[in-house]
Queue: 4 jobs
Job 1
Amino acid sequence: MALSKTRLLWPAWLLSSIVIGLVYGGKLFTAEDRQVFMPGPLSNGHYQLTEKCELCHGDAFGGDKDSGEVLQAACIRCHGKERQKPFDSHPQEKFKDPRNADRLQKIDALRCVSCHTEHRPEITRKDGVTQPRDVCYHCHRDIAEDRPTHRAMPFDSCTDSGCHNFHDNRALYTAFLIKNSGKPDTREPATIPQREFASTLDEVADYPRDQYPLQALVAAQADAVGPLSATIVRDWAETAHARSGVNCTACHVLGNVPESLGAASAQWTDRPTQARCAVCHQHEVQRFGRSKHGLREAVGLPAMTPAQARLPMHDKLAHQALDCNSCHSGHRFDVRTAAVEACLGCHADEHSQAYKKSRHYGLWQAELAGTAEAGTGVSCATCHLPRISFDVSEWSSRIMVDHNQGANLSPNSKMIRSVCLQCHSLALSLDALADPALIQRNFDGPSAVQVTSMKMAVEDQQRRKQKRSDRE
């Protein structure tokens, strides 16, 4: 007796459902890409975390859907330090002030997702902003009454480059513009500060100075287990590690270094991990974990590779996992190579490829050749991994390289205080960063854009002075 068509379809439907359930269940409960479950792609700031939904959706995909507290806690956990004064001109505290309660009726500025909604690429603009460009107007619609210079300005131009940032406005507020007006384009001397790691080691309580006293070592003192190639010994002997007493076992022996080399042999590793670097360079490694280079590994995912980037990259190293050794090659740790050649080995975008045609590169070459003073050259790292004064403890700070390359990247005016003003005036910096074509040419030549914010700030100041004088 022939089976009916409907009776044949039921087993097929059941089998298909089981297969689909197994496929999707496997994606959900393993570390595979989970984009298939997302309502839309993640923004450039978060797309590396597609295998870690729980980083934001910690409790039942958002917990209380009305309050959104779980999502808010996730935002604060990663971005909270930057969302406080003086780094944020619109911190939560401002909107918790009862005098600003009426403004919350227009925009709920207490919640990050009010302006940064994920999974909505169709409305997501630069910096992950999903609010319309006229968002400032709702609270500052009367600004022209206090500042006549703002009359007739488009209501959606507040955040144009060189004007205002909602969060980090430290290089753009009025008093700062006035203070820096009338300065020459290039500062004298035009240099960046020198790193202070070696000079501050005596103040680092956790540094293993008993095992590795701060005294220079020579090639014959290398304490590696087994024979070493002459190249490795030479490379190490020429580094700051050797000059500071950091021997082979400091990096290649796990745990505490034993007294006898025989015991060390049992714990020797040929490939020290990033955690080993962090024993001495914990702040650099922590900041690296906050960057797009190190974010994935910092949250327990396989390390980022250039192939996963959304910027153009060279194919040669597309699948190389990014860690400390990616830029600081083993044994030599050449910071000069890390500052330029390591970057250009991966990045293939127009801005990066134009660097070696720029005047900045000429300054860098002069410094490497010894014909210019240290700190006068401008490398990729000078701008994207700037030397900043960093609080390494509750009682001390030091100049160190900020390995979070995205900290000052966007909006680009965040770069002004930490980078541009080391060598240039505020006016030149604002103009340069507001010119997209000049950025693509890696700042080779003058800007075609003239930002008027400094002129306007000075005019407003003069008008206020005249007004006070008239009253007197």
Job 2
Amino acid sequence: MVAEVATVVIAGLVAFPLYWMVLSALKPAAEVQSANPRPWTFSPTFENFDRVLNSAGFARYFLNSTIVAVVVVGLSLLLSFLSAVALTRFRFRGRTVLLVMLLVAQMVPVEALTIPLFFLMRSIGDVAPAFGLNELGSLVLVHLAFQLPLAIWMLRGFVAAVPIELEEASKLDGASRFRFTWQILFPLVLPGLVAVSVLAFIHAWNDFLFAKTFIISKSENQTLPQAILVYFKPEENDWGAIMAGSTLMTIPVLIFFVLVQRRLVSGLSGAVKG
């Protein structure tokens, strides 16, 4: 009973900021700016959503965020899966050192690497302009760099959990290593891939630090978090539009969670075991 009550209380505490965000997005401007805010409204309006959706460039920013998130998720899944297979199934010199380096890479604070990465992207832009500053390719590169170590460590546990006898049996049946990897091993580690895809999507979709740092002057390549920034004004913040924009940003994440939530639970529990 106590556990159930505690679960409900914790769920309420987690859900309340989301409720307040949606409520503020639906409130008229007078109620949003009121000195005595109420946790309800009798005059819901879509005025804030209409103002955000009709603002210049919102559709473009939404498309940019979608492109970055989808590319990061796709490449993270492919590269982390192949890397996890190589680090688990093959024995080669330096494997342990490589695994330790992947672990150490996760311990470095993102903020400490932002300035060095800025100069690195500026240099890369001289050689490959599509991955330089002001380009979406720079965001894809940096998100991949931060996602791959964690993704490889998570998937390594899933790959190691598949018995080696299964691979040997498939070889006896005439299956090549390529066929075993994609037709047998890949479906077995699918829950782990789902967990990795969710983490990669959230990280890329919600990113503000790198988008603000690398997309300096090319406004058509800005992403959604930067679009919401325009409603923060020195004289008075437009909280209705900020909450409406935040709600619109949250919807794709919620849809993604609903689509993968069944496999996500088993994926995260498997990662803990691994």
Job 3
Amino acid sequence: MNLALKDIAYRRTSFALTALGLGLLFTIVLAMGGVYRGLVDDATLLVNRMGADLWVVQAGTRGPFAEMSRVSVSLADRVRAVPGVARAQAFNTYTIQREHDRKLIRLSTVGLPWEQDRGEWIPLIAGRALRSPHYEMIADVSSGLHIGEKVELAGSLYTVVGLTKWMVSLAGDATAFMTLGDALEVQTYQPPAALRQARARNGGTDKLPPSPRPPAAPSPAESLRGGQVSAVMIYLEPGVAPEEVRARLAQWADISVYTAAEQHQLLIEGVVDKVRRQMGLIRGLLTAISTIIVMLIIYNMTNEKLHDIAMLKLMGARSRMIGGMVLQQAWMLGLLGYGFATLIGRQSFQYFPRRVILTDFDLVFLAALVLFITTLGSVVGIAKAIRVDPNVVLNG
């Protein structure tokens, strides 16, 4: 005799709804792990995709992702002269929020040095890489932008030529790749009225300044000199150890140098750490709540079958057999709840505003957790079933 099968046979709707409720609870537990994994992946996305061996940032800072860093654009030229450096390019990131098509959009702009990097490494789901030094950008699809759509930034219209998916910043903002010159212009742009006021305060003429639009021709590196970027990325020659180049750069007092692994560590232990601990706490609370709910459900289900259990005892059933049936009932309930959780999760997580990454480990972990919760939750029901007096049947 199996109590769970008996429940399913005689109270299908009630048993299914109970399992569905547990499944929704397990779905939240599953989502907590997936959201954290997505958060870590978003935080380290650019470090992984850019593939730089070393990151050169402002001295004394832990930029460019964990905190703000400003270095001169010309630093890339200095770094290129260091033996062992195959390539060095400026990196700039800056978050903007603009009104577009009567809606607010947030973009994390990333500047790519024109000619040197046209964004051909960026995984696109539609469109193409950058082909013009100005007014083109590749945006993440989460921005709501479409291929060919024009967005006004810094007084100029930028055309979306490529779309990516899941290329977002740590804050979940859609990333927009454009040339470094355009990115710096967007970052430092001031409306003509603001420039006029600034000139007036400095005792200059209030005549309108020249148009902030960059020249139509490709921006030469010289036009960026004097500007500041977030960092400089270093790609080493084959066979050159990062520590070797880093030791040479350590003699420069105006910079700090981090390896890609150290950038990972700065993000995980700094930016993501509190989120990780908070999600871990919520996950622990959900586990405790799930255990208590399973206990209550199994206890109530056992209470409803006291007469049947007493009859079994009167017929000679041992307590071990009675306890085993209650445990089977808890496991069956947990199995259905687990099935509902994985089904709901796979169908709904794609609509979450932040990325939820599920791995085989998450599914195995949830299965083990459900087994633990249902086993622990059945303890109360087993204790109740064992205490049932078989004479209850004889007394009516």
Job 4
Amino acid sequence: MNFGDHVRRAHAGGVLVVQPRMGMSDPAAMRAGLEATKHADADTVGTVTLDSYTRTGDLESVRRALCEGVELNGYPIVSYPAEVTRKMLDGLVEDGFPVQVRHGSARPLAIVRALLDVGLHATEGGPVSYCLPYGRIPLDESVRNWEASCELAVQTLAGTGVQPHLETFGGCMMGQLCPPSQLVAISVLEALFFYGLGVRSLSVSYAQQTNTDQDVEAVRALRSLCRQLLPEASWHVVIYAYMGVYPRTVGGSQALMAEAVRLAVATGSERLIVKTAAEASRIPTVQDNIDSLEFATAMAREYRHGALHAESEALAAAAPAPTDSQVYQEAYALVAEVLSGAADVGGALIGAFKRGLLDIPYCLHPDNAGRARSYLDENGRLCWSELGELPLGGIAEVRPGRRITSGDLLRVLGYVRDKFDAVALDRGAGHPAGAAGRRILEGKPE
């Protein structure tokens, strides 16, 4: 079954699909990780995360590491013979357990070819989101690479009964400090880019940020824009648990994870990619990932049907109508201006960054204008302090202030970590994670 069909069918059955980030260089270890994910007490899909050498196309370093027995930080799918990976996956991938390849590459063609060769069909990324934060190549080269990769996937799977599935990474740009409206806009634009190249099975991402109320507005805006602009596509929403500086305490990390689950349930999101309590100190083990998958599933059941149901209902009820929110108004304006007069989405994205119509705060890539800036307001909402050439004049409330210092930047980067660690240490005045976080720390949901 197609990856997207599986997730949507599970959601229709009343469950939140959860997914780890997991990649090991040794095929036996990678298989063991997938087996553990498959048999967790959770509604899971599998992940094969690739190593950083493969991500950057440095296959000579992969070859040398494998020859010398050096462990990589992910699975080198391009360098292993296809038969090795087929054996690693044998008997694991089936209708109830699809597997997605995650990589982070602005040069994904060899990766897409390799995953298709071993019978997989689901991956993620995007020409913007896998170029500006991570890539060292120009944006127009990334766009061409992604065009070729999409065309390869569509042509290879044509007539097989399996559709390629692509997930945008645009809802995560830089992980932190990009206001939600631009995350939504880029996620939608990357989905339109994929769709324009013939990909019909899509997921659109949004990464948990610094204020849950604002996150709810963002996910609802994302849904509204997809319904308007992708009426013929099959799509679902995937939430990424917080991608920035993570809490150092177990309690704090669990409270943050629970808040991601509450966001997913309150917005009707179909899939959640988890993080673990080990994030702040080391690379998570397989067991760390299983613990997080099962924790997220237990919390989702509580928010859907259990003692915490009223909290997810209240969160959804408190949000403005999807198209009335500030996040929607800004995201709509960004998408409309980028697409205005463009012949194709790839060209529109390149032109938008050249003109500063899209501009990622604190992103140092040469193709990013670097004139837009953001700040956290007193409630932790991500707002604009400088617009640069973003087409948000008269729409976004801008609060110009003094230039941000390195100390200011470190403080805001640690905002979520400090907020949730404070809950764990039971010293947070006003209990910033809310009643849900306190119950978690007291062990009540379990």
